[in-house]
Amino acid sequence: MAKSGARKKLPKEVAVINADNCTGCEACLEVCPVDCIYKVAGSTIPVLQSWCEIDVERCVGCEVCVHIPTKKTDPYELTVCPWDAIEMIPTVRVAEYVVPRAAGDAADAECTVITFGPSQGGSVSDNVDRWVRQFNPLSGAPTKATHRVGGMTVTRVEVAGSYHPMSMPGGPQAPTTLQGARLLGAIVEAPSGLWFFKLTGPDASVRAAAPDLDALIDSVRAP
Ligand code: SF4
Ligand code: SF4
Q1: Ligand 1 pocket test: which of 4, 35, 53, 54 has the largest number of ligand atoms within 8 Å of its C-beta?
Q2: Which class is domain 1-90?
Q3: Domain 93-217 belongs to what topology?
Q4: Lowest-confidence segment of 48-57, 73-82, 107-116, 202-211 by average pLDDT
């Protein structure tokens, strides 16, 4: 049975899937020990257009979805993905924070800041879509807006509802589903690559912490 809950420490690398190469065969999904790979159905022809995505905020960097170790002298002999669609990307700079819960909320919120370096981690719209898909059902229409900070474009996203990052929309709910949740995310398009700020947790806790995160994002500058 896969482990559930938040990862205990940040991995040095996380796995990402190149959706252009992925056929949705589910080979990687079957082997992930923390169930952080999930299938996404295409919008036009769901069965034919499906692919898999990895929840990078939950990936523990074990590489099990990339290769099957055989012996020490040849540890990478067998690869999992038949289409070479998965790669391990160093978490160049990452931080994770526990955000104290607001009065009345049953759990703390959490905030992650992560970047993978130039041209890594997918597009802005891919990541916004991935964040929105982690909520089902929604409690309102997600909001998305862009603004400029320090000469860089920032895409700010807010979505609320039932948060279940490991489940497919419409599928069975994962054990970690959080009802009445909210996500505030921002993607900063820096010269060094995309920087992802993601605050998730109970609705009131995220709302309470939102001004601080907005202030942090509006203070960022390119090195
Ligand atoms: S590296 Fe490990 S935890 Fe991450 S997606 Fe692959 S199998 Fe899952
Ligand atoms: S093994 Fe490769 S092709 Fe199959 S679902 Fe995973 S990434 Fe996609």
Answers
A1: 54
A2: alpha beta
A3: Protein Transport Mog1p; Chain A (3.40.1000)
A4: 73-82
